[in-house]
């Protein structure tokens, strides 16, 4: 053991330096759509938008590449957000009654988002009311305030809407009520017209009322008009309403909700009304909030809204209001990755320009750009360098689609969508009837957005993808054992897909498949749009999910494996080459089919997802123990976590210590397949080989007889079993790779002939690197004998989940590279090993070990980056390389009057402050912001931070709570206190010029 | 190494020794050079040859000076037999499948009537039902206490040898908490404990592990700070050669320091074989344990081989024929000069028998622990 210790300590300082130049761990950016959004804000001056989530994350977006992420220390729902327009500051209100101020700061030439202050809102005492007609008093109180809106022209005037329908214009300078609107319908929201002469109120009965603000009388008894747009039958409430004037036509009225309760009460709609034109935008998930991008120049007369931005629970939709028909504008970020559940992901680095352009054009033809406008939320500047190479991320989905994403930069952009469902006969052929709203129909639904979580047939789900970037050939394999060979075509085509069936059981007796049926392909020729078009369909029997697939485009071979065996298919000659059953004779479970296990797997996945959600919502300890609400939630979460009663838990959890036996269930699952041109049979002749690894630690190596290109049509490919390796520890084989004479991994097919890689060293002796879930081993070839090994599980107690061969380039020298093995374990750590010595280099914590779906979804890129799902809709991007980092580098220009809220931060490392979903807890040192007030209001910054000051009479707290009762005096009090708060804020910011214009909904 | 198998009785040479070998009802006599007896495998081959039973697995025994029937199955006891034989070395050969193991042991030949008749007349089987103890060559270590000299007396490092799949390791672990002495006084810290022993399992049969023993290390790696699942995975990954350091719940049977001769704890009875008595290994390094698991490589001819010992099949066949030849010449009365060849072939044969022996032995249920 001493020897062991010494070996570890004896680190070479030179080597340490090289390692520093090669490896660095950073979580750089989150791709996709924030999970469980809860609020939305827009700064029309800086043209940036903020989205808050239920886990307390704040994300700010501007032009593509301009992104800021912040995470509240409290895991609480962000209920409201308001920008201080043009100042680069954002005020957030959480459901734990805390108010936070965020600011964007410059550092090293780039902008960052940081939290600067936080306040706790106390409860309020009650007051008597006066000066209000008796009818509008509920006892002593006026009832809850539903809406507060600043006058668009005169900041001293505030519009106050009470829940019971009373609307008041309050003048802050005179401290008097300017005007009373005696509405009597329960109020939902209020909005000003630009000039301040009209206001519109929306109500719980699905009506909206227009009130004219005239100076002649202090009271208005009746609205100018009152409309129930979807009447006459009872309607649901209109939650929010906006009024926008337009120079070229009549004004826009935009509102959410208000649908007829009985017939369409379950629809999530936003209605856009301009003159006689009414469109009901129909979303697939709940509407959170919406805003319009409009002209805010004070001197201009009209709003002229250019775009409507709607945040729904699962996506962000932008409608072009200037183009007739109001088409949607494709978003350059916030990609709805989860529009159907992601079932697998695959990354390709260094995509050749030609393939890139072909995919791009196929994508463009697929969804022609209807909107005339560019992305309207375009504040800030992207300072990141143009990505040096093109990276393509492919996601397979439950509905049988494969989506192509541009993963070269900070914003993950959709490129192209490939559907595979259309070549199969599915139970419910649901036409696109939903999209076509007939002329007669009322309301005129217009389906927008792409979130559609419902799959017609789970068998269509994509399990594995393999793409050759040089020949544009792709293999896509799915849940029902379907393997599709596709080819990229620039023209549309109509052809028949040839079908072949391959029996992987190979006459194994006593087998009855109790799982799903195989998919039945459509007969006859089918029409395919430009893009990837299927040429060949191979169906495995029994139709179990494909667990491994690989493609060799030079040899025209595709290999695929299921839980029963693997097959090799020559897609050029369209005939099977090899089928081998990998079932262990004792494996009774597999014999019966995987139905029960599939169910339990699904169940456990669902449970783990629930656990993740739960831990995200309630995992962190609340800092506010006073809030009874949070206590109840916490208790509920605890209850939910204790699935079993207490007395059951009394028996301790035990683990049986037994080595894995050969007849473990699922031992036949094929985990990896690999093609290599190497020495399998003798040391003098190399040739095509195929390798397969199974769940029980078996490796099969076949020597292939592949005829030369010109004779391909004449002679058939043959496969001869060359070697069979049984790993003694019997752990599942997760990856196989052949290393050349120099110890570098063999290049991909065509990589050498296209001058994109060095030719492999075929002189020195090759070796094969076999990674199991427990160990990495390098064996010599052709005579298989163990050369080096690393027993990960025996040393660290963790198991391998994902591995990849990664090329690391030094920051110091561009031409110094090392090949390494990156490995993600079941504990969420990432280890990097040198190849072929298998010496451990570095290891980092990456994913929480409870985050099973995150670990399962992880994919490494070839140059030291990676992605994993932090929620069903978001990929976290990380980098292991010190050189190859993709992170948001952007700047936002604004003038913050007397910007003295100096926040120095001793934050080092990743430019990203924290992960929005809180799936990874930062070490204390990293998230440590110290507030140092540079320019001299120390007592205020202290007051903001110290909890003692919260109860003091001079506290800066404002009173905001829309759910509790409020009285006029209270309003008065609120206004004075908010004035005080403003004053204080002003002091903090030394902003004497103008009040920060907080608009509270 | 030049040793001679001299055939022919009554050699007058001082260095030679007469051997009388009995197999069934047949006797063979030959002589050996006392000073250079050679290896057991060669002797074994010679016996097979002189009795003309080249492919019969046999057990070899000899009568020592006390008249006990003792086994010859390795170089050590072979040399012992040769050196103690006075004047004649009496060899008894039994077919392995018919072997009566109970014949071996102390006092066997003094009660000549019983035992020898038993050995010599296989039909005499009315003996008391003895516990069948396999031949010592079938013994292999199943557990040992190691590193006694470098560990605190309160700790015990136990090595479990797992062979084949017949006998389970047979224990369970659980989470628990133990009390540690720290600079701040006593502290409760989480720990991993043995929670259950499976009756008849390897762990129970060693007697070295007990329920509620705290697991401190697995193959040299501390388990503190690791989760139950991590420790489980570590143990399973090391299951072929598992070294667990425990703090026994029962501290009364701890190994007393400086008694290097007996490493056995009070709970475990002697491991019964001198050559495999609990041996003390110091400075255990997990990296040295390379022999613990060897993957099986099946070449395309379908013959399983252990990786490091991979012997080409053709070669081993050849060596067998060479043995045949060389013994043929020995029988004809002259000493073969071709010793080198014979030696190498002998070594290869050792491997072959070793390899072919291993399978049935591993699957033999009579694995002795005590």
Automatic annotation (TrEMBL), chain A:
Alphabetical GO biological process terms: cortical actin cytoskeleton organization; establishment of spindle orientation; exocytosis; Golgi to plasma membrane transport; regulation of establishment or maintenance of cell polarity; regulation of Notch signaling pathway
PROSITE patterns: WD_REPEATS_2 (PS50082)
Residue ranges of domain Lethal giant larvae (Lgl)-like C-terminal in the record: 680-884
Keyword Metal-binding: no
Keyword set, alphabetical order: Cell cycle, Cytoplasm, Exocytosis, Membrane, Phosphoprotein, Repeat, WD repeat
UniProt-listed PANTHER family: LETHAL 2 GIANT LARVAE PROTEIN (PTHR10241), LETHAL(2) GIANT LARVAE PROTEIN HOMOLOG 1 (PTHR10241:SF21)
Protein name: LLGL scribble cell polarity complex component 2
Organism classification: Eukaryota, Metazoa, Chordata, Craniata, Vertebrata
Gene (name only): LLGL1
TrEMBL record, chain B:
Pfam families: PB1 (PF00564), PDZ (PF00595)
Region (Disordered): 253-292, 347-370
Compositionally biased tracts (Polar residues): 253-275
Keyword Flavoprotein: no
Top-level lineage group: Eukaryota
BP terms from Gene Ontology: cell division; centrosome cycle; establishment or maintenance of cell polarity; protein-containing complex assembly; regulation of cellular localization
Localization (cell): Cell junction, Tight junction; Cell membrane; Cytoplasm
PB1 domain sequence ranges: 16-96
Similarity comment: Belongs to the PAR6 family.
Originating gene: PARD6B
Residue stretches making up the PDZ domain: 157-250
Cross-referenced PROSITE patterns: PB1, PDZ
Positions with biased composition (Basic and acidic residues): 348-362
GO cellular component: apical plasma membrane; bicellular tight junction; cell cortex; cytosol; nucleus
Protein name stated in the entry: Par-6 family cell polarity regulator beta
Keywords annotated in UniProt: Cell cycle, Cell division, Cell junction, Cell membrane, Cytoplasm, Membrane, Tight junction
Keyword Cell division part of the UniProt annotation: yes
């Amino acid at each position: 053991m001493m020897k062991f210790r010494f070996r570890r300590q004896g680190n070479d300082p030179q080597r340490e330096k090289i390692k520093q130049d090669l490896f660095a761990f950073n979580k750089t950016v989150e791709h996709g759509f924030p999970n469980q959004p809860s609020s939305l804000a827009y700064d029309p001056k800086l043209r940036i938008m903020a989205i808050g989530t239920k886990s307390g994350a704040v994300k700010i977006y501007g032009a593509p590449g301009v992104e800021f992420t912040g995470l509240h220390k409290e895991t609480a729902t962000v209920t409201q957000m308001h920008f201080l327009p043009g100042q680069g500051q954002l005020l957030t209100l959480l459901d734990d009654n805390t108010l936070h101020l965020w600011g964007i700061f410059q550092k090293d030439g780039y902008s960052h988002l940081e939290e600067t202050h936080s306040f706790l809102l106390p409860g309020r005492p009650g007051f008597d009311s006066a000066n209000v007609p008796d009818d509008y008093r509920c006892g002593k109180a006026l009832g809850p305030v539903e809406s507060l809106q600043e006058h668009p022209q005169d900041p001293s005037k505030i519009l106050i809407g009470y829940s019971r329908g009373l609307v008041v214009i309050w003048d802050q300078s005179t401290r008097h009520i300017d005007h009373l609107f005696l509405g009597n319908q329960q109020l939902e929201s209020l909005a000003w017209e630009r000039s301040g002469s009209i206001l519109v109120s929306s109500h719980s009965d699905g009506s909206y009322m227009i009130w004219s603000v005239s100076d002649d009388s202090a009271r208005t008894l009746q609205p100018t008009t009152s409309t129930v747009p979807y009447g006459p039958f009872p309607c649901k409430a209109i939650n929010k309403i906006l009024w926008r004037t337009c120079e070229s036509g009549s004004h826009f009225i935009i509102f959410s909700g208000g649908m007829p309760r009985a017939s369409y009460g379950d629809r999530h709609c936003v209605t856009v009304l301009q003159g006689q034109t009414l469109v009901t935008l129909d979303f697939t998930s709940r509407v959170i909030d919406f805003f319009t991008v409009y002209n805010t120049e004070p001197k201009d007369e009209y709003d002229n809204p250019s775009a409507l931005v709607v945040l729904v629970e699962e996506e962000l939709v932008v409608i072009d209001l200037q183009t007739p028909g109001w088409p949607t504008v494709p978003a350059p970020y916030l990609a709805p990755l989860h529009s159907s559940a992601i079932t697998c992901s695959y990354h390709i680095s260094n995509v050749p320009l030609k393939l890139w352009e072909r995919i791009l054009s196929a994508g463009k033809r697929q969804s022609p750009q209807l909107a005339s406008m560019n992305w309207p939320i375009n504040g800030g500047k992207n300072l990141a360098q143009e990505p040096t190479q093109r990276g393509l991320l492919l996601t397979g989905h439950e509905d049988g689609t494969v989506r192509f994403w541009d993963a070269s930069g900070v914003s993950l952009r959709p490129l192209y969508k490939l559907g595979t469902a259309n070549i199969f006969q599915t139970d419910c052929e649901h036409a696109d009837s939903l999209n076509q709203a007939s002329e007669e129909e009322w309301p005129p639904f217009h389906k927008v957005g792409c979130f559609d979580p419902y799959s017609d047939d789970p068998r269509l789900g994509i399990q594995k993808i393999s793409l050759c970037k040089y020949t544009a050939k792709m293999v896509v394999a799915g849940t029902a054992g379907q393997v599709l060979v596709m080819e990229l075509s620039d023209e549309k085509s109509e052809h028949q897909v040839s079908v072949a069936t391959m029996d992987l059981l190979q006459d194994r007796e006593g087998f009855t498949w109790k799982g799903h049926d195989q998919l039945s392909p459509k007969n006859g020729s089918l029409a395919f749009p430009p893009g990837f078009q299927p040429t060949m369909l191979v169906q495995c029997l029994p139709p179990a999910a494909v667990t491994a697939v690989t493609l060799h485009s030079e040899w025209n071979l595709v290999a695929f494996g299921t839980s029963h065996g693997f097959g090799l298919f020559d897609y050029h000659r369209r005939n099977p080459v090899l089928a081998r059953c990998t079932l262990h004779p004792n494996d009774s479970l597999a014999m019966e089919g995987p139905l029960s296990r599939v169910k339990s797997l699904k169940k456990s996945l669902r449970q783990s997802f629930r656990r993740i959600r739960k831990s995200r919502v309630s995992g962190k300890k609340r800092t506010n123990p006073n809030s009874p609400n949070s206590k109840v939630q916490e208790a509920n979460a605890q209850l939910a976590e204790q699935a079993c009663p207490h007395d059951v838990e009394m028996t301790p959890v035990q683990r049986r210590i037994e080595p894995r036996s050969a007849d473990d269930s699922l031992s036949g699952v094929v985990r990896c397949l690999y093609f290599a041109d190497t020495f399998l049979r003798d040391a003098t002749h190399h040739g095509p080989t195929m390798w397969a690894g199974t769940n029980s630690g078996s490796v099969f190596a076949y020597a292939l007889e592949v005829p030369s290109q010109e004779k391909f049509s004449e002679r058939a490919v043959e496969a001869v079993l060359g070697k069979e390796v049984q790993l003694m520890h019997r752990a599942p084989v997760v990856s196989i790779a052949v290393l050349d004479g120099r110890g570098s991994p063999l290049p991909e097919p065509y990589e050498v002939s296209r001058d994109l890689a060095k030719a492999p060293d075929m002189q020195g002796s090759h070796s094969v690197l076999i990674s199991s879930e427990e160990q990495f081993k390098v064996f010599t070839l052709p005579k298989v004998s163990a050369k080096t090994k690393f027993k990960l599980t025996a040393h660290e107690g963790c198991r391998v989940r994902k591995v990849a061969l990664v090329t690391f380039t030094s920051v110091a020298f561009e031409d110094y590279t090392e090949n390494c093995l990156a490995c993600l374990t079941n504990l969420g750590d990432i280890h990097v090993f040198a190849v072929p010595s298998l010496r451990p280099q570095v290891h980092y914590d990456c994913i929480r070990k409870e985050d099973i779906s995150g670990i399962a979804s992880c994919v490494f890129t070839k140059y030291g980056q990676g992605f994993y799902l932090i929620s069903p809709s978001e990929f976290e991007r990380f980098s292991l390389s010190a050189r190859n980092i993709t992170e948001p580098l952007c700047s936002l220009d604004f003038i913050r009057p007397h910007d003295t809220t100096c926040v120095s931060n001793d934050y080092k490392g990743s430019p990203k402050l924290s992960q929005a979903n809180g799936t990874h807890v930062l070490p204390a040192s990293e998230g440590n912001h110290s507030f140092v007030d540079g320019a001299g209001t120390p007592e205020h910054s202290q007051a903001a931070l110290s909890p003692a000051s919260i109860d003091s009479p001079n506290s800066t707290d404002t009173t905001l709570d829309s759910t509790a009762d409020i009285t006029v005096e209270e309003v008065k009090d609120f206004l004075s206190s908010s004035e005080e708060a403003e004053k204080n804020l002003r002091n903090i910011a030394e902003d004497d010029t103008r009040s920060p214009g907080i608009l509270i909904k | 190494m030049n040793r001679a198998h001299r055939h022919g009785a009554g050699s007058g040479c001082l260095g030679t020794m007469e051997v009388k070998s009995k197999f069934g009802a047949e006797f063979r006599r030959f002589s050996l050079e006392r000073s250079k007896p050679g290896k057991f495998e060669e002797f074994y081959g010679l016996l097979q040859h002189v009795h003309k039973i080249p492919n019969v697995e046999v057990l070899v025994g000899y009568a020592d000076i006390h008249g006990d029937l003792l086994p010859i199955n390795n170089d050590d006891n072979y040399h012992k037999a040769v050196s103690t034989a006075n004047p004649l070395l009496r060899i008894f050969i039994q077919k392995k499948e018919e072997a009566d193991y109970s014949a071996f042991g102390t006092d066997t030949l003094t009660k000549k009537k019983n035992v020898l008749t038993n050995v010599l007349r296989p039909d005499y089987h009315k003996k008391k039902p003895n516990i069948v103890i396999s031949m010592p060559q079938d013994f292999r270590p199943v557990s040992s206490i190691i590193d006694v000299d470098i560990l605190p007396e309160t700790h015990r490092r136990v090595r479990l040898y797992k062979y084949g799949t017949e006998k389970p390791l047979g224990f369970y672990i659980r989470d628990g908490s133990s009390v540690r002495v720290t600079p701040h006084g006593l502290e409760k810290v989480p720990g991993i404990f043995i929670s259950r022993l499976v009756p008849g399992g390897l762990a129970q049969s060693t007697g070295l592990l007990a329920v509620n023993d705290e697991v401190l290390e697995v193959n040299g790696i501390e388990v503190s700070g690791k989760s139950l699942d991590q420790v489980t995975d570590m143990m399973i990954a090391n299951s072929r050669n598992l070294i667990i350091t425990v703090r026994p719940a029962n501290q009364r049977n701890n190994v007393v320091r400086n008694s290097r001769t007996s490493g056995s704890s009070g709970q475990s009875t002697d491991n019964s074989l001198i050559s495999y008595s609990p041996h003390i290994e110091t400075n255990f390094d997990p990296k040295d344990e390379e022999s613990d698991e060897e993957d099986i490589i099946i070449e395309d001819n379908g013959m399983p081989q252990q990786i490091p010992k991979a012997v080409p099949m053709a070669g081993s066949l050849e060596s067998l024929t060479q043995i045949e030849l060389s013994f043929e010449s020995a029988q004809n009365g002259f000493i073969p000069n071709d010793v080198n060849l014979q030696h190498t072939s002998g070594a290869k044969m050792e491997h072959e028998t070793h390899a072919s022996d291993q399978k049935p032995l591993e699957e033999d249920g009579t694995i002795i622990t005590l």
